[in-house]
Model the fold of this input.
Amino acid sequence: MKRILVSLGTVVFLGALVASGTGAFFSDEETSTGNTFTAGALDLQVDSAAHYNGLICFDGIEATAGTEWIPEATVVWDAVDMRYELTGADVAAAVAAYNLANPAANPEAGDECGGTWSMTDLGPSNVFFDFDDIKPGDTGENTVSLHVLNNDAFVCAAIHNIEDNDNSLTEPEAEDGDTTGGDGQGELAEELNFMVWEDDGDNVFEDGEDELTTGPASELGTGVVYDLYTPATGPLTGASTTYLGVQWCFGTFTSGVCSGTSTTNVTQTDSFTADVTFYAEQARNNGDFTCPDIDEFEGDDEEPVPTIAWVESGQTGGDASIVEDEDAPTGDDVLELTTINDVNSRVRYSYDVADINLSSFTGFSYDSKQVSAADMVNGNASFRLVVDLDGDPLTVGDIKDVTYEPYYNIAAHNTLNDASIVPATWQNWAATMADGKFWAGGVTTVLGPSEGAGGAYATNFTIAQLLAAYPSAKITGISIGMGTYNVNQVIQVDNLIYNGNVLGFE
Done:
């Protein structure tokens, strides 16, 4: 028993040695908490200040004014705050003086404007250039600033989705040798010249500033990518501002001065449209960077989807809808107009156009089918021009609907058209400047009918006659529809062509 007790004591002693030895070594403990990786940011933002014919599109004259054109002399470039500020001059007096000294200027001082905005991510409302009545010798400039937040970046610019359209063929155009009048057939791109340089922010090309590119818009072809800042030139510095001056001239540049003396009539009514895209990519660890090909900006070479400009308007108990008709002249989709059993029932499908001179009207045609017309066997869709008789948008009392009706333009009166209206049959209706009769409510001169009258062939007039009486008239819109006293009708319309442009319903 004694030996057993001794042995047990030895075990206890050894256990005590082990227990006491565990806490006897030196030790230390350190913890690194919250280990995190956070990606840097790269955000390209753009602002713009637009200039045009001695005016600047300025934001902030009055809290409610938005942006408007004011004389450039009423602002000054603040190189410290890097922005334009008012000089303290009497802006209202300067606006009045400018308009008095420049009675034919376009735009007028005080007009609303776009093309100027503060630093932002570009969207549909940020359009650098939006001018609808430029003349040879007109010139403008946008000071565009690029802001890279917050890392160095390579930057490219792409000009793409280009359209150079000949919107009509006026008599002066034809006399100067123009023979086209459709989409993609314009000449404006040849006469619209651009110069781009790296600016210091004051919108003036000066000695020491680098010219980046110059030439006509026609050199853009189907699109161009510009290598603005690459490994070869060095990146834009993060958290900095870089200014680009972009000057345009309807004519030719000579030492930075725009002249329109060499421009001919072939550009009349033409339009040039393009998208501008800036692309930024990190510079660090990216020494092999190259700008993307133009195809990547074009959306895999897909054609841009056209904006549908048709809107239903002016209807009372009528309706406009798109339906299918496999027998339609073009495609399957057609416009269907319906009215109800009410003499006041009417319907209109309208399409706004830029204010263009009535003299540019070359004609229209459309196909229609009388599906049913129980209460009027001669009922059919009519075509309307919205005409501002004096061409002044500020006077609205002289804006008239000038209406063409097939009923008054059957073969007995108009050699362009069919013998008569045939139910359930697609028929073509057409009019030119001198062939085709119209009526207009309220035009009581030699043009014929009185207010509200539908007219008759003998008193209706051609567009040529209307132009002779109102040489300053402008077209502001077109529409297809049915007016009052056309009850219980279902009419289909297709293949509307206006001034050489197909305005379909697909």
